[in-house]
Write a structure and sequence with these properties.
single chain; mainly alpha
């Protein structure tokens, strides 16, 4: 019940802002039961991504598809690297590194350095997102920082399309690394009702995000995520 409640809160945020379920849920779920991350959480977030993508119903234009190709390519490389090292690196080291990178991205945005969705930045963000998403389930901040200046609708639509392709890539990497199996899938089914509830609530929150709150929401949630995973790694 506690895990489902946490997932409901995170799913409501992601349904409204385009990302956030793993940011809110991963540190708390790890405290409830370390077995809930990354596998079960990644499976649940994939279902949520499909729900959000279906609701948005906004096909990507030519530019959006071009941008998505670069990001997904980066995701493949990042997930592959994560699959290789996830068995050798300690969870504490990964958490501290992820938190530091997220906070660096927030700091860059606060000093008004705009990161354009160019091939290089999208490839780098996709790689970092793939590595982070596969090892910790928190793969949203790198991509969200790229699109923080876009409208709420575009942020949700683009990130949903990206995660719809990217999450299965990370799932495959975990399976090949022996870190995701039948037990994880059954665990995900037990906490999936929280995702459904959060998604249902998120429809009432999109108006708040769309009225100019996208950038503050992205930066605030990313900063909280960075601090949370660092403390999780140090505990």
């Amino acid at each position: 019940m506690a895990a489902s409640a946490v997932l409901a809160a995170g799913s409501a945020l992601q349904g409204a802002a385009g990302f956030g379920v793993a940011i809110i849920a991963a540190p708390v779920l790890a405290l409830i039961d370390p077995a809930l991350v990354p596998g079960p959480l990644l499976l649940c977030s994939t279902v949520l991504t499909l729900l959000v993508f279906t609701r948005e119903k906004r096909p990507l234009n030519l530019r959006g598809r071009h941008e998505l190709r670069w990001a997904v390519t980066g995701r493949i490389f990042g997930a592959a690297a994560a699959g290789v090292v996830i068995g050798a690196m300690t969870p504490q080291a990964i958490s501290i590194g992820v938190g530091a990178v997220v906070l660096l991205g927030v700091a860059i945005s606060l000093v008004r350095v705009r990161i354009e969705p160019a091939p290089g930045s999208l490839l780098a963000a996709g790689m970092l997102s793939g590595f982070m998403g596969t090892t910790t389930s928190v793969g949203g901040p790198p991509m969200a920082l790229i699109y923080q200046h876009e409208s709420g609708a575009k942020l949700r639509g683009t990130l949903s399309a990206y995660f719809l392709i990217g999450s299965p890539i990370s799932i495959a990497a975990l399976i090949l690394a022996g870190k995701l199996g039948t037990v994880d899938a059954l665990t995900a089914l037990r906490i999936l009702p929280g995702v459904i509830l959060g998604f249902a609530i998120s429809g009432r929150l999109t108006g708040l995000i769309d009225r100019g709150a996208v950038r503050p929401a992205v930066l605030s949630v990313s900063a909280i995520a960075g601090i949370a995973v660092i403390f999780q790694g140090l505990r």
